[in-house]
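Hey, I was hoping to borrow your eyes for a little while. I've been staring at a protein lately and its backbone has me curious. You're getting the sequence in one-letter code plus the fold written as tokens. Would you mind checking whether the tokens look sensible for this chain? Here's the protein in full, and shout if anything looks odd to you:
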Amino acid sequence: MRYIKYFILVAVLSVCLVSAHAAAPERESYNLNEGWRFFFADEPDAADADYVTLPHTWNVDAVEGGYVRTTANYQRDIFIPAEWQGRRLFVRFGGAQSVAELFVNGKYVSEHRGGFTAFTFEITDFVRYDQENHLRVIVSNSQRSDVLPLSSDMDLAGGIYRDVELLVTPMDIISPLYYGSEGVLVEQREVSRDKASGVVKVYLSTRSVDHTTLTARVVDEDGYEVMTRTVKVSKISPERAIEVPFEIPHPQLWSLEKRTMYRVEVTLGDVKNPLDRMVVYTGLRSVTINDDNRLCINGIPVDVRGVSLPHDREGYGTAISRNHIAEDFVTMRDMGANAVRSIVGPHDDYLYDLCDKEGMLAWVDMPLARYEYSFADICYYPTAALRTNGFDQLKEVVVQNYNHPSVIMWGLFSLVWQRGDDVLGYIGELNELAHTLDASRPTVSCSNSDGAINFVTDLVVLRQNVGWSKGSIEDVDIWCGQLSSNKSWASLRCGVAYGEAGVRGHNCERVERASRDMRHLPERRQTDMHERYIEQIDEAGIFWGVWLDNMFDYASTRRAYGKNLAGMVAHNHVDKKDAYYLYRARWNKTEPTLRIADRGWRERRDMLQSIDVYSSVGEPLLVVEGDTITMRCVGKAHYRADSVEVHGTKTIHATDVSGRYTDSVTIRVVK
């Protein structure tokens, strides 16, 4: 045991130093992911506890009974060298679900409530120098009435599921304590091709000075300084921002096509011998909605093709790596999506870094949500504790993602209802707070209700399932007409969201409407829903954005098989469903698609089959045993051949006219 402990302590201090571009003294950052002992709160002895590496969750696979809402402990030792005396120490957590309390050497440091945002605790006054120090983190994902979300379709997997690091800083610093952010917010007040202006807001935390200077320097991608300004600072307060105005003539604007980023350097004290220095990156752009209900970036309309992104992956739970995030990003881009919604709460900051660099829009939710199929669920208590927690979590969501140009809207609620205590007034307060924190971005909500709740946020995304869960698919066209013609609803800035469960391997001869508790979830029904819905939505042309629920299946113990199975891709994030290729053929403008649908339906009963093909390379030809069959267009990039005769086992080929792109599937007709 002593050898293991020694190895862990040496490993911590041998981690590569990360500099924040300061002269002297430098900030230092040490990764603390290794060497944690993990045990549940009801286990009496930690001596035999398992060692785990972060990110970690105790809820890995809900299907196998792994989803537990409980309390657990993480603890480890770190050595604090004597040379660090006179400096400050912080522990930063990327995320812990849902409540985390930190103890250092047995003394309580602080608590964080909220499972989707980062948080930082200062431990300077709790450590012993030139000694081992004991860290203990108590984490709970138990049901509570004072922490959002109170209700969720997504399992709230417990654990420290993102990275943890130790920060060592000078005494007078740009604060890492301001709602878990870097302490530097670049506020854009006016953005055009002629000029960009605003202020750099800086939050300070000092122990030895009460007045100094602050310098902000903006550098473009070519390394040219476009602005520098120094202001005097006095009466320093951790909650009061020091504002440095900036103005950039003829700026290079960020957009989906040209992802221009500016480097913003903030120096505390003398530039040549600073007290502290911080560097952040941002892009300059404007976000507006025009009179035709089109979302515009820098005044140019964008056809928003969005997907809702869950937080977990089969076999890993929510403890996913940056490699997993990068893989998911590639999958979303391959399908042709240009926007992503972080449902219930923000993802790891790395996702938005990718969105900034690669060009994808982001909608980031705060966790005010309700599971749509449970009438017993309560999503809001009018208590001071819950209301305050909601305000605090919204502040963290906004502040931590403030500098990302890809983040274009703040989500305030998802599928809440208006029964019980009045949530409408609280949503109004959240909306006002979001605008106070950030006037440059619109607020948005996802609603399956009628009435006034749809008119609180700047934008709304309607999740009504019109014509699918009830009525007929033709009702979608009627609904769209009503949204356009009704005097009240016509003023609504609305997008649309929809989805349907489908399981690869579940097959059917005839598509039937699903009931709430149905366990037979054929992929063909999911595909049929998307084929018919997207045609009517596109034809209506009244929505500023289309959002698919969801990109990937995710763990949801409340649903059949322990999962929400409405994803375009299975829970393993590998197996793509037919609907994925439907949207790839429609949305991906750079990579060709030619895909025969229903390929998982290998054994069929009827000798006359209908064969569907998704093609972005023109009208395909179907070849069956040397016979060529012409297909007819039934929708954008969607072709069908009716009455294809199949006896026994046959291989069906699809090809474009040039023969460059092909696909094939083998089916067997059995009685």
Remarks:
- Residues 603-669 form a domain with the Immunoglobulin-like fold (CATH 2.60.40.10).
